[in-house]
Write a sequence for this structure.
């Protein structure tokens, strides 16, 4: 049972690869953003101070750290615009995720109930929209939702409305865009969880006197919880930081936090404030990830 | 037929409701068929099961025995025919309203619920008061000797413990009929043997009706009052274990249950004789249900065959009936038994099973030995189909 040293060294390298990846492409960039968030805006290249001065030696290091401050974070807390943006983003993300669950769960459940061959086709259909550029699909929605677009023409033709309602630049348009774009991210993990569900458990529940609808709440839903959590996180986290959809479909009243970051970076050229907004966003999102990890560990124990 | 049942079926516990006239069966299956597309899983099958019976459905895989069980549970609907329980046609009754419970081959324990919650699940559906549920669950845990495991999840139990939880969960609702689908298939051999006896004991104590599906003949023989042997969706024979073994009514059943030596022949003119077999003329004691000259088959179980070395001059073989000379081709030593493969002078291959009673060195038969092979006329089973 002695492991061969060569093999274990290779295993060590392989095990370290994901860590190296995370350090290079997540931790280091995050530290850079964190550092910028502690700096002050300046008309310079790069547009913030202090900048690390290697030539000044030890005193350079000291003046560098002396130049860092939490001012930007204090500013975020004092300006209600940002607090409102955060709340708005969380609210839109939470409500969208709920809608995605309500729409995605029946779709995923229905797919698992079809014959295996059809299932493969249906899963491909779910991810088919990815074959078209995301931006093109959102532009298509702009076209569909505009004042004299196909949606309003249809509603008028069916006599559902008398006056064409305004869709673009509303929260509704943002929700439509988000739910449409993120549906595959909700359906696929739900499908994966439901597909694993042992059908004999449902038969056992029926055998023990449980009607179908109650079996769903007692057996199906609890056992698909990992899929519900995975799908919700896969949707919730990117939706909070969503920029393109609210920017293209939403109006001025839907200023989500992604748009705040964009305007700080590019309109105001205030990199430190933008970085602080981003750091707070990361902190807000770490909480659900930790919850998910906890759940996933419990799920692994069960298997 | 009744006398046959009396001589064999009663051996177990003097219980034979199927032999009584005018007794209503608990479960009546009337000409039930189940087709899946082109495939007929159950074919015009009729069967009565009586209160308190331990009934086994035995057959090779794909014979329709599990489908029959699922029809009774209500997971499948019959293509035609009726299933009647306690005089009530189960046809329109959905599975969750049927007074039967099933123990699944995979156990189908709810992985997110504790052992207690699994057992309580069925009682909660009835809306019983909490205190009654708790006491009945505790009774069940005691019955299957898992008192200290109530708070565990199924994945924290061994295979044998899970099997007992599944049994407790299916028994707790006191079903009119308990359906067991290969309940011991996942257990190792030793545990299976013990569990078979525990299951019989439990069934007798609770006085319930059990229908077990199994492909393991020794399991069916051990536990069941009656066995239904199935093949390709049909019943081949329904009888107590001893009758199935000693008096199979077809070559298929004789061959499926245990091992057997089969010889084709025709009914002789003299009473109780079969002519023209590979062993020559054979004498049998059984009544032959066929006209003279009709083709019949003689079946002899390997353990009913006697072997005497030709080197030993014995008085036993003088005038012996059903006796031929044969050569030992091969010997399989099984410990308790040895299996001898023999070839007669006419070239027929036979198998004999001899109990290893004496010490190994004392046994006189070895490879290539010439032996006298014989069996008593009462050991010969005559089959007409």
């Amino acid at each position: 049972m002695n492991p061969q040293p060569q093999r274990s060294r290779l295993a060590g390298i392989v095990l370290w690869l994901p860590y190296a990846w995370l350090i290079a492409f997540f931790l280091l960039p995050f530290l850079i953003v964190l550092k910028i968030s502690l700096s002050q805006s300046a008309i310079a290249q790069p547009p913030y101070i202090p900048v690390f001065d290697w030539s000044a030696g030890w005193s350079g290091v000291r003046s560098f750290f002396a130049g860092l401050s939490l001012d930007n974070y204090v500013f975020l807390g004092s300006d209600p615009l940002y607090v409102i943006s955060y709340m708005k983003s969380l609210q839109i993300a939470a409500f969208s995720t709920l809608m995605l669950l309500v729409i995605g769960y029946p779709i995923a459940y229905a797919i698992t109930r079809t014959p295996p061959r059809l299932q493969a086709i249906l899963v491909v259909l779910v991810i088919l929209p990815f074959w078209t550029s995301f931006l093109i699909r959102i532009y298509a929605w702009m076209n569909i939702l505009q004042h004299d677009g196909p949606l309003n023409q249809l509603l008028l033709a069916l006599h559902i409305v008398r006056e064409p309602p305004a869709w673009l630049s509303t929260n509704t348009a943002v929700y439509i865009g988000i739910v449409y774009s993120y549906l595959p991210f909700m359906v696929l993990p739900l499908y994966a969880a439901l597909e694993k569900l042992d059908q004999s458990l449902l038969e056992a529940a029926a055998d023990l006197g449980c009607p179908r609808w109650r079996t769903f709440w007692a057996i199906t839903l609890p056992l698909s919880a990992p899929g519900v959590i995975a799908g919700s996180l896969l949707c919730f986290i990117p939706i909070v930081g969503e920029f393109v959809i609210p920017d293209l479909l939403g109006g001025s009243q839907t200023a989500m936090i992604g748009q705040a970051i964009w305007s700080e970076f590019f309109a105001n050229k205030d990199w430190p404030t933008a970085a602080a907004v981003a750091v707070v966003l990361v902190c807000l999102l770490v909480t659900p990830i930790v919850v998910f990890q906890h759940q996933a560990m419990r799920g692994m124990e069960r298997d | 037929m009744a006398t046959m049942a009396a001589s064999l079926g009663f051996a177990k516990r003097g219980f034979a409701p199927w032999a009584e006239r005018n007794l209503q069966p608990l479960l009546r299956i009337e000409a039930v068929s189940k087709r899946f597309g082109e495939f007929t899983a159950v074919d015009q099958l009729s069967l009565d099961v009586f209160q308190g019976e331990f009934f086994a459905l035995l057959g090779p895989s794909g014979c329709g025995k599990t489908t029959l069980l699922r029809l009774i549970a209500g997971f499948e609907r019959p293509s035609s025919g009726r299933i009647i329980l306690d005089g009530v046609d189960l046809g329109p009754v959905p599975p969750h309203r049927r007074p039967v419970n099933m123990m699944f081959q995979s156990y189908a324990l709810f992985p997110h619920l504790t052992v207690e919650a699994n057992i309580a699940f069925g009682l909660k559906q009835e809306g019983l008061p909490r205190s009654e549920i708790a006491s009945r669950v505790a009774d069940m845990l005691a019955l299957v000797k898992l008192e200290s495991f109530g708070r565990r999840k199924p994945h924290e139990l061994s295979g044998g413990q899970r099997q007992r939880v599944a049994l407790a969960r299916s028994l707790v609702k006191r079903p009119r009929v308990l359906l067991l689908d290969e309940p011991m298939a996942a257990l190792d051999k030793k545990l299976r043997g013990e569990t078979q006896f525990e299951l019989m004991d439990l069934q007798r104590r609770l006085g319930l009706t059990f229908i077990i599906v199994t492909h393991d003949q020794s399991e069916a023989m051990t536990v069941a009052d009656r066995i239904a042997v199935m093949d390709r969706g049909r019943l081949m024979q329904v009888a107590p274990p001893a009758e199935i073994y000693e008096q199979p009514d077809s070559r298929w059943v004789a061959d499926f249950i245990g091992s057997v030596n089969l010889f084709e022949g025709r009914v002789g003119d003299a009473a109780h004789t079969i002519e023209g077999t590979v062993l020559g003329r054979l004498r049998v004691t059984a009544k032959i249900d066929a006209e003279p000259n009709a083709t019949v088959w003689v079946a002899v179980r390997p353990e009913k065959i006697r072997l005497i070395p030709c080197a030993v001059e014995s008085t036993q073989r003088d005038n012996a009936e059903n006796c031929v000379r044969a050569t030992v081709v091969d010997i399989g030593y099984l410990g308790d038994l040895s299996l001898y493969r023999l070839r007669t002078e006419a070239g027929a291959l036979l198998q004999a099973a001899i109990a290893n009673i004496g010490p190994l060195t004392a046994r006189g038969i070895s490879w290539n030995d010439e032996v006298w092979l014989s069996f008593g006329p009462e050991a010969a089973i005559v089959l007409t189909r």
Summary: The interface with chain B takes residues 198, 200-201, 203-211, 214, 218-219, 222-223, 302-303 of chain A (CB under 8 Å). The first strand of chain A starts at residue 40 and ends at 41. Residues 152 and 165 of chain A are 7 Å apart (CA to CA). Strands of chain A lie at 40-41, 48-49.
